[in-house]
TrEMBL record:
One of its GO terms (biological process) is signal transduction. Residues 1-99 are annotated as: Disordered. Residues 13-33 have a biased composition (Low complexity). SMART domains: TIR. It holds the Pfam family TIR_2. This is TIR domain-containing protein. Residues 140-273 form the TIR domain. InterPro entries: TIR_dom, Toll_tir_struct_dom_sf. Residues 34-49, 64-99 have a biased composition (Basic and acidic residues).
C-alpha cells in the first residue's frame, strides 16, 4: 500500500508539472513519468490483490487445518472415552463373576460342612460304645492321638496341636509325650491305647516314614476293633493320591487342608469329641 501511495503522489506531481510545463517536450516528459507511475500503481495493486488472495487462501488452509486438529482431538477423546467405558464394563463384569464364584464357593463349602456334620451324626448314632483306657497318671484318656510326619510339623501340625490344646482338647503328640530315653514304640502304643481318636495327617511325607506307617496300622486296628476311631486329614494330597498310597482310606470322609483352615478343623474335632464321648463308657 505504501508503494501505491508513493506512486500515486509521483503521478499527481508529474501531471501537475505537465500542466504547468512551458514547452511541449517538458509536458511530454512529465506525462511519461505520470504514465510510468500509473503503471507502478496498477502493478502494486495487482501484487496487493495477489497477496490478499494468497493470504485468504492460507487463512482458509489454516482454518481447515485447525478444524482437522480439533476433529482429531475430539475423535481421540471419544476413542479414549469409549475405551474407558469398555474397560469399566469389563472390570464390572469381572467383579460380578468373582462375586458369583465366591458365593458359589461359599455355598459349596457350607454344603460340604453340612454333609460332614450329617455323616458324623449318622456315624455317632449307629456307633457301638467303645472302651478307652485312662492315660498313665491321668483320670481320663486323651481325646486325640495325632499321627503325622515330622516334616509336616512346621507348616501344619504344630499349629493344629497348639490350636487344639487352646480350644480345650486333650491331645497326645510326640513332642510332649516322648522324652529322651523313652521307647518310641511303647510310647506310641500307649498313646494309641489311651486315646479316643486317632487323627492321621496324610501327606506325601507321611507315606515315606516307617513310624507313621506303624502308627497308621495301630489306628486302623483299633478302628476295626471298635476301640477307637480313625479321623483322616489330607495335607497336600488329593483323593487320587490317597487311593494310590492307601486305597482303604480313600473312601473315608476326610478334612482336606486345601478346603479347611486349622480353626475349622479344630471346630470339627470339638464336635467329634462331644458326640462320640457321649456314647463311650
Amino acid at each position: 500500500m505504501k508503494k501505491v501511495a508513493t506512486a500515486t503522489k509521483n503521478m499527481n506531481s508529474a501531471m501537475s508539472s505537465a500542466n504547468r510545463a512551458s514547452s511541449p517536450s517538458s509536458a511530454k516528459s512529465y506525462l511519461s513519468t505520470a504514465e510510468r507511475e500509473s503503471k507502478n500503481i496498477d502493478s502494486a495493486q495487482d501484487k496487493s490483490a495477489r497477496y490478499s488472495a494468497d493470504i485468504a487462501s492460507k487463512m482458509s488452509d489454516l482454518s481447515r487445518a485447525q478444524e482437522h486438529v480439533l476433529k482429531g482431538e475430539e475423535d481421540e477423546r471419544k476413542k479414549t472415552s469409549d475405551l474407558y467405558e469398555k474397560q469399566r464394563k469389563a472390570d464390572e463384569a469381572a467383579r460380578k463373576r468373582l462375586t458369583d464364584d465366591n458365593r458359589a464357593l461359599s455355598k459349596d463349602l457350607a454344603s460340604l460342612r453340612a454333609q460332614l456334620t450329617a455323616a458324623i451324626s449318622t456315624q455317632a448314632s449307629s456307633t457301638q460304645p467303645f472302651v478307652v483306657e485312662n492315660a498313665e497318671g491321668r483320670e481320663t484318656p486323651y481325646d486325640f492321638f495325632i499321627s503325622h510326619a515330622w516334616k509336616d510339623k512346621e507348616d501344619f501340625v504344630n499349629g493344629l496341636v497348639s490350636a487344639a490344646k487352646e480350644a480345650g482338647l486333650d491331645v497326645w503328640d510326640d513332642q510332649s509325650a516322648i522324652v529322651w530315653g523313652d521307647s518310641i514304640r511303647q510310647k506310641i502304643d500307649d498313646g494309641l491305647r489311651r486315646s479316643f481318636f486317632g487323627v492321621v495327617v496324610l501327606s506325601p511325607n507321611f507315606f515315606e516314614r516307617p513310624w507313621t506307617q506303624y502308627e497308621l496300622d495301630g489306628i486302623v486296628q483299633r478302628d476295626l476293633s471298635g476301640a477307637g476311631r480313625l479321623l483322616p486329614i489330607w495335607h497336600r494330597l488329593t483323593q487320587d493320591d490317597v487311593a494310590a498310597k492307601a486305597p482303604s482310606l480313600a473312601g473315608r470322609l476326610a478334612l482336606p487342608t486345601s478346603t479347611y483352615s486349622t480353626a475349622q478343623i479344630v471346630d470339627e474335632l470339638l464336635e467329634m469329641r462331644d458326640r462320640f464321648k457321649a456314647v463311650a463308657r
